[in-house]
Amino acid sequence: MLDRIGNLAWSIRQSKLQTQLAILIVCMGLVALLPLLVNDYWVRVAAFVLINIGLASSWNIIGGFAGYASFGHGVFFGLGAFVGAIGIVRYGLPLPVVMLLGGLVTGALALLFTPIFKQRGLYFALSTLAVLLIFENVLQRWVFTRGLREFDVGWSVQLPYGLWTFYYIFLGTVTLLIASVLWLAKSKIGYALHALRKDEALASSIGIRVLEYKVIAFVFSSAWPGVLGAAFAPFLTFVSVQSVLDMKFTLNMILATIFGGAGTVVGPVIGAVALSAIDQFTWGNFLEYHRLIYGALIVAIITFAPGGLMSIFWSVTRRGKKQAAVDKPQGDTVRAREAEVR
Amino acid sequence: MKNASSFRISRRRLLQASAAGGLSLALPAYIGRAQAQTEVIHFGGSLPLTGTYEKVARIYRDAYDFWGKTVGGQITVAGKPREVKWTIYDDENNASRTAQLTEKLISDDNVDCIVGAYGTDTVLAQGSIAQRHGRALIQAGAASVRVDEEIGGHTAFTLVGGARNYYKSAIDYLATMNPKPATLGMVVMDDPVYHEHAAGIRERCEAAGIKIVVEAVLPMNAQDFRPAALKFKSAGDIDIIASPAWDVVCIKLAQEMATLGVQPKAFIGGHLTTNPVVKETLGPKLKDVIGVTLWTPSLKYTDPHFESPQAFATAFEAAYGYAPTYHAAMAYSIPVIYEHILKDADPADPLNQEKIKQALLQIEIETVWGPISFNEKGRIQREGMPVIQWLGDDPQPNVVYPTELAQAEGVYPKAAF
Amino acid sequence: MEDVLIYGLLRGGIYALAAFGFSLVLGVIGIVNFAHGALVLFGGLLTHYLATRFGMPYIPALGLSALGTGVLAALIQRLFIARTFQLEPLMVLVQTFGIATVITELGIHYWGSEERMLRIDTSLPPGFFLGSTFVPSFDFLLFVVSLLSAGLLYLLLQKTEFGRAVRACRDERQSAQLNGINLSATFEKTMFVSGVWAGLAGGMFITLSPLAPYMDFHWTVDSFLVIVIGGLGSMIGALVGGLVFGVLSFAASFYTPTIAPSVTFSVLLLFLLFRPQGLFGTGDSTRK
């Protein structure tokens, strides 16, 4: 039984992009039926889960695929929210425009990170954290972003859309996001990232332009949070440094990805869902201990299963073949070899 | 060599996989559903029960609980008795979380009466969700004028006076000193509520002819208050130093001023000086420190359940082991107001939100918190804040202003830190 | 302004004292211990607890807490970090972040989350004047302890058997193993020393200013900033880094308080970009 599940999952993983996209569309179609089945509270929870899935999947591109842990990634989400707030409130732009703008602004900003990419590992992580903390301060103090009127701190963003509208906006955006990640994983970019994650010096020596691919991955992983952030602004209705640049967003991205399995496409998705479920459960039943449980869970997963839920899945269903899941890039190796990787 | 077909998937497999995928995403929704209703009147809200505001949140929660005890676990709704039920969630002082929880309270838990959260962002988030559902809420956790502007009068009804008014009486009091203070320095935490406090101080200083020589604006997460203390020191001898902020700021600032030798003639320690942690950490340094308090048990008000605020305070302390602060008086009053409105509600539709809102706009009631009536923005009509001073070698809080309420003569200039 | 300089240096002494252990762990084991701030608070709150609950005099309470913190740190190493330090640094970082959360939450459950300060009566005069600047005695004492610690730790690293093993693990790990140095024992001892100094810093700081469990993140970040400036693995670097950071952050808070975070983190960024090994860093600057 387990073997059959394992084989099915493996064949999905290795199948063509069109197949994977088809599965994605069907899944999301089912998720779209949710508001008809449950009350508004659960729709709201689901909307947050979708946002977390989106953020985790984005982070996974730079943190999982490329192996560059960005510790300040929440800055792109927060910036997107500010773009959304300022665009809607100060300039009266419609939501789709503002979402696009959010992605463009954060993507452009990501390009400025290029010098930071000369560093690796911890130094990279902490540089991104420093950038987040600087932006937090700047957005708070700069008159243009601080608020609409002189004494305002924060933006009140009111749009006449109901909860369901936002749910479908997030659902649609996240579907596109995951589709793009599926595409990326199979493309030569995905192959290059996989190579440089394993051994950057070696990848460089066989002709992969590592800096270029790192930057592309980073821009990709920053633009999507910008888009999501811009839609988040009217959803939350109040945008301020405290509400959108909270360290929690960054931490959740990282934890969801690691919990689910960094470097896989499905990992961030199930990680985000699992963490939300745990969160809901502990909140309701172990109120005073929920943070303790959260922390203990993090320690446990890293200590005993650092590959996350996906690695547990593979080791249970494909005993002995688990290693292949980590070593093989998602793309078809034959095609990748034929592709230009100069 | 592997068969090429193992890389292709049959249609059946495809459907199986997507069904599994889609359903698993919808799974959490089936965990927990709304429960059946019995004859219950359900109060609900969220508070920052964990995190930096944990202590204050506990006071609110205990006060809600105390009201429940006081009414014996049941009240009359539309002429018939109903059992009282409370659901208070922990929102960690996080706006997104509060929004979610408020949605849960309304849509999932089917709460009848919403009680306010604590903190500006959280109350606004709560109000935003309540507004979407056309619900009313009574809150005593956010003083900012934003509440009035965004959700006041049609959704939120606020029991705490405007932030701008908090410190006015303290300045007015000090302006009566002889010799009159000439200079003032203050820290301003960078957040709308504290800017409003500062605006009130500026207004009264201008009226009294007191010059503000230092205004140290600090980020909300500032840890080190020595630079601010040094700023005060560098400005020379300042008569009044004001810290219109929360308890930790008061503690740290007093500590640093004592260390650096900054000795103002008066130190306004904020509106949370009665929190036990202040006395525990500062000890004798608290002597002659001035605070503003929105309430003290020595006031003379009547209440549907208690003959005086002092009776309330005594009973509260007996039940929970600590003396109630103004938060307790405010929080307790929220369900009292609901109780009052629902008593004679229309039996056909007792929880009609429109009727409740109308009743709130017109209400005139007195509780341990004092006389309560709301203006058209849902804000309580309340002006002056009693000024207290911590007198004696084992400092105890005494009301020193206004004179009608004063328990003792104030001390000016204050003893050295 | 000399006031700012002097107070900055005094603050820097505290930062340095907290950062010694952090630097050692990062340099030797190669991990960023996100639970470091929690250790500082543990030491501080434990000191407070022993002094107030059991009426212990200050010095023994301080000593005992420092040792207790060291033991806690060594336990963390043995039970958790030992299993993961070979993985990517990100994993260990997240793990120590989880450990920090657990320690903080347990601390809150056991001690409560409110701020605590320890008022002690020393027979010292309140302070002395250096030029026109008033230097409080206990701050100065802390500064002196910091200087002495730097010296002591430096000697420890240079002259003792333990120090040699630590330096070997720091600089040439594989050769160290080939020479028979027990890696895990060395790591545990390193974490122990790190914990002792973190606890010492917390225990001394709690007499100056209140501490509460939720403050752990700030201490961890500050320690990290000190190390980036001073260089990892070096005790002198931690001292100099601490002093420089102390002056920098005090000056920023004094002259430009509202943008002080931007200033300090921009300096951090510059160091990370242009001089990642810090001022006195030993070892490979591009090591992961």
Structure description:
The complex is a heterotrimer of chains A (342), B (417) and C (288). In chain A, 76% of the residues lie in helices and 1% in strands. Chain A contains 19 helices and 2 strands. Chain A has a two-stranded antiparallel ribbon with strand order 1-2. Chain A is globular. Chain B has 2 domains: 40-163 and 325-372, 3-Layer(aba) Sandwich (Rossmann fold); 167-270 and 276-296 and 386-401, Response regulator (Rossmann fold). Chain B is built from 13 helices and 15 strands. In chain B, helix 2 runs parallel beside helix 12 (326-343). Chain C has a single domain (2-274), classed as ABC transporter involved in vitamin B12 uptake, BtuC (Orthogonal Bundle), CATH 1.10.3470. Chain C contains 11 helices and 2 strands; from the N terminus they run H-H-H-H-E-E-H-H-H-H-H-H-H. Chain C has helices spanning 2-28, 36-53, 58-84, 89-111, 137-159, 161-171, 173-178, 183-205, 216-230, 235-255, 260-274; strands spanning 127-130, 133-136. In chain C, strand 1 and strand 2 form a beta hairpin. Chain C starts with a helix and ends in a 14-residue tail after the last helix. Chains in contact: A-B, A-C, B-C. Chains A and B meet through helix 1, helix 2, helix 4 and helix 15 of A and helix 1, helix 3 and helix 4 of B.
By secondary-structure content and strand pairing, the structural class of chain C works out as mainly alpha
The share of residues in helices of chain C is over 70%
What is the CA-CA span between the terminal residues of chain A? Answer: 44 Å
Secondary-structure element series of chain A: HHHHHHHHEHHHHEHHHHHHH
The CATH class of chain A is identified as Mainly Alpha
Looking at the overall shape, the CATH architecture of chain A is Orthogonal Bundle
Largest sheet of chain C: 2 strands, antiparallel
CATH topology annotation of chain C: ABC transporter involved in vitamin B12 uptake, BtuC
Largest sheet of chain A: 2 strands, antiparallel
CATH class of chain C: Mainly Alpha
Rg of chain A (CA only): 20 Å
CATH topology (level 3) name of chain A: ABC transporter involved in vitamin B12 uptake, BtuC
Oligomeric category: heterotrimer
Strand-residue proportion of chain A: under 5%
| Distance from first to last alpha carbon of chain C | 40 Å
Total of DSSP H or I helical runs spanning 4+ residues of chain C: 11
**What CATH architecture of chain C would you give?**
Orthogonal Bundle
Q: How would the global form of chain C be characterised?
A: globular
Q: How many strands in all of chain A?
A: 2
Structural class based on helices, strands and sheet pairing of chain A: mainly alpha
